[in-house]
Amino acid sequence: xxxxxxxxxxxxxxxxxxxxxxxxxxxxxxxxxxxxxxxxxxxxxxxxxxxxxxxxxxxxxxxxxxxxxxxxxxxxxxxxxxxxxxxxxxxxxxxxxxxxxxxxxxxxxxxxxxxxxxxxxxxxxxxxxxxxxxxxxxxxxxxxxxxxxxxxxxxxxxxxxxxxxxxxxxxxxxxxxxxxxxxxxxxxxxxxxxxxxxxxxxxxxxxxxxxxxxxxxxxxxxxxxxxxxxxxxxxxxxxxxxxxxxxxxxxxxxxxxxxxxxxxxxxxxxxxxxxxxxxxxxxxxxxxxxxxxxxxxxxxxxxxxxxxxxxxxxxxxxxxxxxxxxxxxxxxxxxxxxxxxxxxxxxxxxxxxxxxxxxxxxxxxxxxxxxxxxxxxxxxxxxxxxxxxxxxxxxxxxxxxxxxxxxxxxxxxxxxxxxxxxxxxxxxxxxxxxxxxxxxxxxxxxxxxxxxxxxxxxxxxxxxxxxxxxxxxxxxxxxxxxxxxxxxx
Length: 489
Description:
Blueprint: E1 6-11, H1 12-15, H2 30-38, E2 43-47, E3 50-52, H3 55-60, H4 64-73, E4 89-94, H5 101-113, E5 117-123, E6 126-128, H6 132-136, E7 143-144, H7 146-151, E8 156-158, E9 166-168, E10 181-183, H8 189-202, E11 208-212, H9 219-232, H10 242-253, E12 258-261, H11 268-273, E13 278-280, H12 282-290, H13 293-299, H14 304-308, E14 310-312, H15 322-325, H16 328-340, E15 344-348, H17 373-386, H18 389-393, E16 395-399, E17 414-421, E18 424-431, E19 437-441, E20 451-456, E21 461-466, H19 467-473, E22 475-479, E23 484-488
Parallel strand pairs: 1-2, 1-15, 2-5, 5-11, 11-12, 12-13, 13-14, 14-15
Antiparallel strand pairs: 3-4, 6-10, 7-9, 8-9, 16-17, 17-18, 18-23, 19-22, 20-21, 20-23
């Protein structure tokens, strides 16, 4: 039986300082985790637990653009606040400022005991530009020659470990190279084996991995990004995909180990077919931001299996905070959307409090932000409602709104769906527009009395309607801008 699950992201290095300046994961009160369990979280993603290189900070983390981001996020920013990107990994060992491996194992055991599974990062594309692996295993990384370096010194470099070898920095083909990283070579079988062996070890430390930029290791993407260097090195395209090789091997070691893929460029479905349990649904967020209801509705009509394996979110550490990118009212409507459709529902630390500031991942300190009571109370209510088996296991069906009268055009502003489970029903109605809107909704009301009760569990109101009128004309709805109903009837 399918189950829609919730995941909660924590920026670990920054978050720990809320408990004390030198807190490690063993210092986090058990009540904190129990509260997340009570809110319905099935997974916790501790982002940024792996060992990094302090030597990278001074050399690569004070670019003018980054300093601008630091000052914008942290008004009293100081150089000591910069701790480097957690995605510039030295090795898959626990960062000492987080704790020890034993601390992590004890936390995992406790989380599992209260029904939460632990997710950690797996960055398949690259390591830190100062990673000790460049010294011990230079063959793992993409190598070039002096000509490549002379033509593009932003993408290619000489390592402090091997002054006679030219390496490539990690990159996304649509953006400049990440200079604090070194690119792995996925057309090299030894690289693939090393990364699979690394993941195999991680199955003992966590219950799954969030795979950063998972599509970058696809053969066609890798070939298109690095074709010149691969031709120079006489590397041939592998016959199978890395994930096709990797995921079954890991699942044979531990069949419940979860793979979540950060994915873009319409490659989500391909990654799902290669074995990913879930992939990011960034396109839904983009459509929620634009607000074209027909496009959102069309998005939710995709294949049911694809929907069930999609990660739904309105913010994360890479995205702007939802109350800023969407606005308060629209962010609440969008939260109702992602919390009541099929798939994995993703929440970011600070989202429930209405935080506004997106923190650059290189910063180790966050600004003090107060709690937005309006947002906080809303999420408490929403999570209480959706932490119910009908939203976890229920059959989900998209419903078409009908005009409330002949010339009524605002009916097209509504998103509506019905969840059913063991004879119980929840009708979700969202006016995803900036105007007061009306519509009617057809409901099947077999064996209902002449009058029946609709309880709006989201807003704490109860309505009584004539069954025959609803059967023949449809349930009349009027909602203000970005307002929602969640009806039990």
